[in-house]
């Protein structure tokens, strides 16, 4: 994974202070330790799931589902997986009914994921599914130790797995929350963690990623009032759900009151997919208000060599320049052309991330890269990156409405 910046870095002292802050955070924020975990117990648990299970269904919302979905949808097109993975993550009744129509309840294992053990959306869906399938062996519960959900699971004699200490939901993809459903589908979670570990070691051991991440985070923080919209422009449909994961990570972590002032701050995340969004959002970036930075993500090897046929179409001879061109080359030419066009504007902060191929290791690297970047920017704009009081406020109101 190579990250190239097209903007000037900020004060070196600011960067070093942020780096030291993250070094200290490693002592009490749990996600930093996930790349180095021993996954043997998780793999042993996965081996207990019967071979006749065809579908793994995650019942969870937000951080309980988005990370696993991002990895699964990235890998699925290029690898033959042993099981299907689906996600019950909405209280939309049409969505629930549609998903149920596509699975065999007797050949599905459900993972019920809730850090607190009391997530309303999750348990409204679980109650409905439990009314259809009440065999406790069909469920595994993933939650914090000692939560009400763990107590319930023990009551019905169902399996329970725990989240590690001090790992928030949106940072939990590399814990049991993401690793178990992915492993059950046949995704190589060891390679996933290896990719994350490579970024972690490069950053904390003065490697290439330290300088790159610090420069990028310092620029975002210094200019957060002007360039307060951050766009990922990913040139692959396989990254669609990675963009959704990034939106939650970035928005929920950075949209806050500052710790030492009364100001509201935040950087608005937007996920775009090229070339499709070249025909919609690009116009706003190119000629709209100068309040956006853009990160382009390219894939060098798509594991697919289909080419445009060598065909001449009457009255469309000018398009013969496409003939015999691999689609993988065309999509990256489109990306490069947009980058050049935006560079010519001269006042739009840009950077590019090149991913060598569609593998577990590479998506693991990309995930941990963005987790570190989020922590750095949060430190530099002076917010608590790891809480979400705005989300909790809505939950409190909903509970009062339900009680009434």
Automatic annotation (TrEMBL):
Gene3D superfamilies in the cross-refs: Glucose-6-phosphate isomerase like protein, domain 1 (3.40.50.10490)
Gene Ontology annotations for the cellular component aspect, listed alphabetically: cytosol
InterPro entries, alphabetized: G6P_Isomerase, Phosphoglucose_isomerase_CS, SIS_dom_sf, SIS_PGI_1, SIS_PGI_2
GO term, biological process aspect, one: glucose 6-phosphate metabolic process
Reaction it catalyzes: alpha-D-glucose 6-phosphate = beta-D-fructose 6-phosphate
This protein's record includes keyword Cytoplasm: yes
UniProt keyword annotations, A-Z: Cytoplasm, Gluconeogenesis, Glycolysis, Isomerase
Metabolic or biological pathway, per its Swiss-Prot or TrEMBL entry: Carbohydrate degradation; glycolysis; D-glyceraldehyde 3-phosphate and glycerone phosphate from D-glucose: step 2/4; Carbohydrate biosynthesis; gluconeogenesis
Subcellular location: Cytoplasm
Listed EC numbers: 5.3.1.9
Annotated active site: 252, 279, 395
Signal peptide: none
Annotated PROSITE patterns: P_GLUCOSE_ISOMERASE_1, P_GLUCOSE_ISOMERASE_2, P_GLUCOSE_ISOMERASE_3
Enzyme class: isomerase
GO molecular function: carbohydrate derivative binding; glucose-6-phosphate isomerase activity; monosaccharide binding
Keyword Cytoplasm attached: yes
PANTHER family recorded: GLUCOSE-6-PHOSPHATE ISOMERASE
Family named by the database record: Belongs to the GPI family.
Chain's role: Catalyzes the reversible isomerization of glucose-6-phosphate to fructose-6-phosphate.
This protein's name: Glucose-6-phosphate isomerase
